[in-house]
Design the sequence.
């Protein structure tokens, strides 16, 4: 009887908050979950301009992985993703560690570093398209100073174009990573730093073996945010290179968009987007397990 009387009170506890969350729950179920299931379902069909129930099994996926353009986009995403993760975390943490020293004009510097994140990827792409243009960008400026043999045109070199995109992405996103890391550093107890100084532990060892393990939740969250942005990178590439030269800077998101809206091949676009969903799940599932699965 006691448990029966408690159940209604638990059910109606915070009732207003539960009612307020109903629209968001319905939106998530209908739009996100429903849209995802619809996309996966039609990836096994031969849909062209409009969806149609002509099942072809795994033909779309076989055709996808036999397309050179898709393979190039996967290779670019791997290069871009690994380097973006490494450099974003390292540069962001170093900047956060420097700002954590209570330096002068900290607020001004933090604003300057974070400002690029307020810009859209399209604006960032256009800006860096101009900066990396060999006719009036960095190369032209350096050559005007006397180094006439200097060459720096990554957006026009198919073998290194993805690194030009990476430069623009780091310029925009590193400031945000810095703020996340700075918030984590500010949460470290000051007594830990004092104890490390008393024991004579070098600063780099303190950061590496004491501070970073304590910042594990911040690091994991930052990794997930960066990884999600890497998988769906699209507008930065379109603004900078439009996938060129040729298909040298192609990425999966652009492949999906082009096949769905330009090539009018919905089945192939759905298959590619399903593979992107799978890559996101590979990132998200371990994070959920690390954050919640091992908790007692």
Sequence:
């Amino acid at each position: 009887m006691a448990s029966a009387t408690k159940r209604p009170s638990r059910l109606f506890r915070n009732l207003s908050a539960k009612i307020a969350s109903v629209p968001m729950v319905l939106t998530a179920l209908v739009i996100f979950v429903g849209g995802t299931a619809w996309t996966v379902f039609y990836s096994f069909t031969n849909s062209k301009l409009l969806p149609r129930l002509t099942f072809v099994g795994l033909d779309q996926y076989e055709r996808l992985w036999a397309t050179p353009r898709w393979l190039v986009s996967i290779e670019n995403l791997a290069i871009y993703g690994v380097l973006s993760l490494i450099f974003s975390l390292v540069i962001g943490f170093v900047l956060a560690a420097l700002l954590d020293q209570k330096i002068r004009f900290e607020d001004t510097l933090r604003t300057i570093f974070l400002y690029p994140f307020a810009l859209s990827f399209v604006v960032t792409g256009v800006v860096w398209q101009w900066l990396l243009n060999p006719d009036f960008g960095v190369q032209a400026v350096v050559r005007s100073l006397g180094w006439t043999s200097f060459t720096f045109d990554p957006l026009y070199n198919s073998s290194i174009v993805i690194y030009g995109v990476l430069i623009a992405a780091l310029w925009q996103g590193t400031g945000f990573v810095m703020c996340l890391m700075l918030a984590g550093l500010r949460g470290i107890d000051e007594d830990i730093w004092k104890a490390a100084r008393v024991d004579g532990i070098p600063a780099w060892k303190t950061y590496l073996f004491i501070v970073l393990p304590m910042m594990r939740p911040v690091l994991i969250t930052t990794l997930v945010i960066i990884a999600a942005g890497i998988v769906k990178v699209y507008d930065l590439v379109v603004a900078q290179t439009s996938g060129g030269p040729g298909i040298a800077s192609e990425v999966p998101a652009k492949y999906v968009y082009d096949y769905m809206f330009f090539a009018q091949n919905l089945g192939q676009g759905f298959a590619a987007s399903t593979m992107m969903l799978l890559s996101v799940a590979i990132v998200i599932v371990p994070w959920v397990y690390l954050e919640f699965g091992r908790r007692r």
Summary: Confidence is low (pLDDT under 50) at residues 1-5.
